[in-house]
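User: Predict the full complex structure for these chains.
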Amino acid sequence: MRSLSLNTNEDDYVSLSFKKIFAGLSVIMLLIMGGGLSIVIFDMIFNITERVGIAEYWITAVCITTLFACIPNLMIIIHGFAFFSKWNIYNCVLQLGVSVSGFIYAGLELWPLHVASILFPSLCALALRSASYKQFVEYYYHLQTNRRQERKELKAAVARLKK
Amino acid sequence: MIDGLNTRQNTYENLKTSTLRSRVEVSLDIKKIFKALDSKPETEGAGVIFIDYENVTITLREFNSSCRLNPINVVLREPPKNITPIAYTSTLTSNVRESKLVGEIVGTALSCSSAVLAWVVVIGSSSIIPLTGGASAVVSYMGAAAAVASSAQCITGLARTGLELKSPETLDWLDSQEWYQDTSAVLDAVSLGGAIISGAITIKMVQRLAITGKSIPSILKGLTRQQKASLTKEIHRLNIPGISNKMYKKLLRSGEVKRRYSQTQISDAILIQLKDALGASLSFTGSAMAGNVNTLAVGLYEEFIIEH
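Assistant: Here is the predicted structure of the two-chain assembly.
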């Protein structure tokens, strides 16, 4: 995959290989999957459904988890805001914390749930540390920055020529 | 020789069936069971099948109902040897839950695959702005909405799987809630919308490429300089809406815009959009299997309470 710029040379290409796409997608999907399991583990530890009700907890937890996983990644991909990758790290650490606490709290009871819930954020942490993921974030940062710059220049050129 | 063996086997099976039938008729009050079934509108005319501990099956009564189109059958199953009735009941109940768990895992896998494809569309669509022109913003935002909806479905699927393990009764309660069913339908519709928009953008791209007068495979193979220039011009016109011919020529002369994209740029952009289209079609398939497009429902278990 390559970026298509309006007025750059072919040498200016910033390439996006399948390896980088895989790293980016892995982070997104692992955060989503880890988030889904964290909802159950979090309730297991703090017993929130009994305090606030199943529906209330379910809606709030799914909304928060979805937005916490989606907003940073959409900001990285659509607007090229590279600093949002830090949010992914915070999310991953939070999920790992919840999963480990759940494992300590419940022990080997429901072990498949605990194994999966610890595995997803751990793999995500590995993917977040990889060079491919960093290049994936960098690609979108450069792509969107260049695109904004080009639009600005094009508008300025049209305005200049109109004069 | 083989014919002889088959005949002997058939005779043995017939003997087993007739012995079982006689045993059932002696040990069970079949007429009372039929009467109990017919007294309830839900089971009126239902067929009755009996399976013994050796898995020999006999039909005690064929389905025959005047007010029901779809046949229903009540299966009476004898517990296998060496298992107490209570243990067998709990095995059957856990089998139902195990099937439900498998169902949840399959559903989760489907919704997460749909989320992967939605994110592939988001990742791809924000890199192909020139070829799709003004529509690129629509695909990015609609694709983003679809990605959020699919992600929510994936998160819900995983949480449901966890809940099925932790407290199945909570999941049953959740399934019975109308707001939950409505929310799931809305999420499905949004993720489907993303797939449709991606398809529409592909059609737009194909229309855009039609100005070259060539098919997509031949465009991927190569375009002449004139064809590349006319395609580039069309793309620029989309990026600067309402630009006059005179202004466009001025921009070209001043070197502000490219006269023509290279073959690599055009081929890459088309390939990305084709991949997105493939993603969208798979997302549509996912929805067709478990969502809004689907109009068929398949029930695996049906429970009846019969009062004696």
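The two ends of chain A are 39 Å apart (CA to CA).
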